[in-house]
Structure formats: C-alpha cells, structure tokens
Amino acid sequence: MNESIKKLLSLQTRDTEVDRLRAEAAxxxxxxxxxxxxxxxxxxxxxxxxxxxxxxxLAKKEKDIDLDIRDATIRKHTGELNVVKTNEAxxxxxxxxxxxxxEKSELEDQVLVLMEQIDTANKSWKEKEAAAKGVQDxxxxxISEWESKQQAIESQIQQKxxxxxxxxxxxxxxxxxxxxxxxxxKRVNAVVPVRKEQCMGCHMKVSQNLLNEIRRGQxxxxxxxxxxxxxxxxxxQEAKPA
Length: 242
Known about the structure:
- The chain folds into two domains: 3-169, Orthogonal Bundle (Helix Hairpins), CATH 1.10.287; 173-232, no CATH class.
- The protein contains four helices and four strands.
- It has helices spanning 3-80, 87-169, 173-186, 208-216, and strands at residues 191-195, 198-199, 221-222, 229-232.
- A four-stranded mixed sheet has the order 2-1-4-3.
- A hairpin with a 6-residue loop joins β3 and β4.
- α1 (3-80) packs antiparallel against α2.
- The longest helix is centred in the middle third of the chain and has 83 residues, at 87-169.
C-alpha cells in the first residue's frame, strides 16, 4: 500500500474517533433535557395527588360547617317549643326540627364518604410522595452522571484533536489539503478502498485505467465518480496446502 495512503488512513482513524466523540457529546444535552422533563412530570403528578386530597378536605370542612348550622337550628327550634302558644306554631317548629334532622343525617353520610375519600387520597399521596423522592433522586443522579460524562468526552475530544493536529501537521501540504477538503465538503471518509473494482465510497465501478494507476502507486488517485481518494484493499491470501 502507498505510504501516503497509510498516513491518511491513520489520520482518518483519528478523525473518525473525534467525529464519534463529538456526536456522543452532542447527544448528551437532549438526554439531560429529557431527564429534567421526567422530573417535572413526576412533580406535576405529585402536585395533582396533593390537590385531590386538599379538595376532599375542603369539601369535608364545608360539610362540617353545614352540620354545625343544622345542629344550631335543631337546638334553637327545640328551645322554642317550650314557649310557643299555638298548636300550629308548635307543629311548624317540629316540622323544621325534623327537616333539620333529615338534612343533618344526609350530611353525616356525605361526611363519612368524604372521610373515606380523604383517607384514600392521603394514602395515595403519601405513596406517590415516597416514590417520587426515589424517582427524582434517580433522575438527578443520572443527570449528574451524564454531565460528568459530557465533561469527560469534551476532555477526550480536546486530547484527540490535539493528537490529530500534531499528526496532520507532520504531513505534506499536498497530501493533507485534498484530504481536508474532501472531509469538509462531503462529511464522510475521504479515503476508501476499491473492492472488486468498485469504490466503497460511492459503490460505483471504477475504470481499468484507474486500477492500473492505483497499482503503480506513484500518486494518490481520486474515484472518478465521487472524488474520494481510493486505494486497493489488501485481501489476505489463503494459505496454500503443503
């Protein structure tokens, strides 16, 4: 294999590693954003459970006030029974007392239902609160891990880029310039093998003339279709039987 090709393949290996690390680093912010959204969704669900509990508690408080009003009405009318002077007034008071007692009984049933709902909602909220802490701590731990990983990747990128630049700096300008131009324009591997008379970059068949030039190895040759720098892939020969 042409020595220039070997040097470019070595450089391309470094560039591929840098590209991989950059893609990995670029994916981290989206992962962190997703984890933060999960934390917020968890908090929202917990707040909704707390809201349900508070609504039941407020409803019970209103019923308790209504019960106090009915009790006061019953006491008031019961006291008035001793001072009324007509039978009609007496019957009217008894009717009001009976009505207040019926309403009180209905309110007591409603309070019992609300108390059950409060117990259920309180239990659900406490369970979600306990689970939410664990879930949120887990999400936060993952965020910290990803942030640390991103810092480590960025540090790796700086190191790999420095190594790459040092290696590229040692190459002849006539060698590195077309290579850099191909990578910048195509965002792909600039150096690819020819396999079975086919460019492995664009998968087009190459001419016999190009194959002959590659075999001579006197200069770097571009693919006639995609302009990538091409070389003949060295296929290991099968061992011959003794």
